[in-house]
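User: If you would, consider this record:
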Amino acid sequence: QKLRSRSRARWRERRARTHRFAHPRCSVAQPGRARLTEHTKAVMLLDVPQEWFALALVAAPLLVTLCFVRRIANRPDHAQAVNLFVYPIKSCAEVAVQSATATPRGFEGDRLFQCTDKHGKYCTPRDDDKARLFKVSPRYEGESLVLRAANMPELRLARDAIAARVQCEVLCAPKPLTLLDAGDEAAAWLEAATQIPGVRLTGLPRDSDRVVVVNQDQGDAVPTSGAAPVSLADEAPFLLTSVESLADLNARLEARGKAAVDMQRFRPNIVVGGLLPWEEDTIKRLAIDGVEFHAWQRCGRCKMTTIDRQTLKHGPEPLATLSTFRERDHGQRNFGMHLVPAEGWAGAGRVSVGGRLEVLEYHEERRAEWLRLFRGQ
């Protein structure tokens, strides 16, 4: 009988506590009394302080919300460089590197050479009869430029070999430039490898004064107060892309019943991971491994991205899909950002795979556009 009385007293005490904390599963039947649901009675049978139970009720929704926000963001702790590429000869195959020296006009050794036809005009795979340029694999080894291609003997050239100074057209350059012809041996090898009649290997002199110019279709002013040097690259010293944007593009391609594409199609220098899709648009200034850059303008894509690197066949993708959501008023279908080294920079810095990307400043107009288009804000 005493034990039963003690149990009843303990039960009344727990019931009073439950009423005092206004458990949300209780409803008040009459003043001073709480009607207990079966759930509450089950809880009261546990020897758990009701203060803990009330605290859990408050904390649980907060934890669920935090987990939900984290899942939606799907963002790692920081963004970083995941791939780096150098293109010794413009329009030929890339070289993947673990680290590269960044100079004011691009990664050291990047796009210092181009193939020039017998009329002095640049050669580009955009032309069907020149798509074999993709199959030429150049690589630097010490002070040599080594050329390789299927069914061709390796050719080793001195990087500074000069047979003659010649005037050549360079894509996106407003006027012909003086380049250095690498000689007949290189020309014969390239003609056999690419089947381009009269093709010559030409290189940029060390004292070249070529500078970036404004792309009128993009309309973004060059972000430096002085001239920004550039190699033989189309528009800017560096091109940055992100793995998340490629994944989003491929998801859209597959939703349209099209094959996914790889990053080779876009020929970047720096591939980063850890951003949200298309978030690279929003950056105005950034640093990778402490090397600072201006994120100058978005990169409008051309038919070169539609060439399958294995078959060398042209197709409509990925431009057709990019046109559905990445085409601006001026017709530019954008993928990636052009970078220009920041002013006051020491002149050379080392960027490595795994190097941390720090956003130093956002471009407010581009950020607002990105939030509206891709985040629904």
Summary: The longest strand covers residues 291-300. The CA atoms of residues 14 and 44 lie 7 Å apart. Residues 18-46, 64-74 have pLDDT under 50 and may be disordered.
